């Protein structure tokens, strides 16, 4: 099972989603990566505030470097989780054909099915925004891991 987490910059939300899910899954059977729909931060470390909130919960995300989402990711990954609706539109635009769009899901639909809730972009806010994003992602990644273990993902 290969899972890709996607946000806009690949420096705030999706690096946290990657690090949190990696901390829960069996690394021998589940590959987790992340990417951004924008290239401004390509090659960069996650945002300092994401690094700090992950560290607070004993997760190290400093091995990650931002990269752009590519159409090839539709082939490589089984499931593509996006953080918000604008990520959804930007990712789906790059699908090689329509059937690949089934791989794309708003991540919070795993914890709140059908509600189309978004993980808010914390980039322009304060530290509380990062704590909030961390808690949302920790809860949903727990559920994603349960689904993987039940072979229902
Ligand atoms: P992310 O947050 O999508 O969660 O990584 C952002 C990071 C950078 C920018 C926007 C959102 N930016 O405009 O540079």
What does this protein structure show overall?
It is a single chain. The protein has 153 residues and is of the alpha/beta class. It is 37% helix and 12% strand. Helix 1 packs parallel to helix 5 and helix 2 crosses helix 5.
Sum up the structure in keywords.
153 residues, 4 strands, 12% strand, binds 4-nitrophenyl phosphate
Largest sheet: 4 strands, parallel
| Cα-to-Cα separation, first versus last residue | 9 Å
> Which structural class best describes the helix and strand composition?
alpha/beta
Overall average residue pLDDT = 97
Share of residues in strands: 5-15%
Query: What low-confidence regions span 5 or more consecutive residues with pLDDT below 50?
Result: none
DSSP summary, beta strand count: 4
Q: Estimate the global geometry from the Cα principal axes.
A: globular
Strand order of the largest sheet: 2-1-3-4
The succession of helices and strands, N to C, reads EHEHHEHEH
Number of helices: 5
| Rg value | 14 Å
Roughly what percent helix?
Answer: 25-40%
Bound molecules: 4-nitrophenyl phosphate
């Amino acid at each position: 099972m290969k899972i890709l987490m996607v946000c806009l910059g690949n420096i705030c939300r999706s690096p946290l989603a990657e690090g949190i899910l990696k901390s829960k899954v069996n690394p021998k059977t589940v590959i987790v990566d992340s990417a951004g729909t924008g290239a401004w931060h390509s090659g960069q470390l996650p945002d300092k505030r994401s690094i700090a909130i992950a560290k607070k919960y004993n997760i190290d995300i400093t091995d990650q470097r931002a990269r752009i989402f590519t159409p090839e990711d539709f082939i490589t990954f089984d499931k593509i989780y996006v953080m918000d609706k604008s990520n959804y539109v930007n990712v789906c635009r790059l699908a090689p054909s329509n059937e690949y769009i089934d791989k794309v899901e708003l991540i919070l639909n795993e914890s709140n099915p059908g509600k189309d809730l978004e993980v808010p972009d914390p980039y322009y806010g304060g530290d509380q925004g990062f704590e909030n994003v961390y808690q949302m992602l920790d809860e949903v990644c727990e559920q994603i891991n349960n689904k993987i273990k039940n072979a229902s993902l």
